[in-house]
Amino acid sequence: MTVDASLLVPVLGVAALVVKAALGELRRPGSAREQWAFAADRTALAAGAAAAAAVVLLGWNRLGVTAVAWALLVGALSAQLFHRAAPRP
Fold first, then answer.
1. 3-state secondary structure 7-72
2. What is the pTM of this model?
3. Are 86 and 44 in contact (CB under 8 A)?
4. pLDDT reported for residue 1
C-alpha cells in the first residue's frame, strides 16, 4: 500500500495540535479547555465548516480523499481563529 505524501502533512498538523494541547494541559491545568473552546462556539464551527466545505469542493478533483484530511485541518484552524477573533462580552 502506498501512502500519498500529501496526506502526511495534514495528519501531522492535527497531531501537532493535539500534542500542543496535551503539553499545555500538563503545564497549566485547564488550558486545553480554553484552546478547544471553539468546539462549543456555533459561529466558529459554522466558519470552520464553510472553510472545510470549500477545500473539499475545490480540491476533490485533484486530491481525491486527501482533500478531506486537508479540509479537517483547515476547518479546525479556521474555527479556532474565528473563535479567537470574535469579540467576547
1. HHHHHHHHHHHHHHHHHHHHHCCCHHHHHCHHHHCHHHHHHHHHHHHHHHHHHHHHHCCHHHHHHH
2. 0.78
3. yes
4. 41
Q: Is the dihedral of CA 19, 13, 11, 48 positive or negative?
A: positive
Task: Identify the segments of the chain with pLDDT beneath 50.
Answer: 1
- State how far the Cα of 44 lies from the Cα of 25, in Å rounded to an integer: 22
Domain that holds residue 18: 5-85
Integer Cα distance of 12 and 49 in angstroms? 20
The count of domains in the chain is 1
- pLDDT for the residue numbered 17: 86
Query: Per the structure block, which three cell numbers stand in for 42?
Result: 456555533
Query: What residues contact 47, with CB distance under 8 A and at least 6 apart?
Result: 78, 79, 82
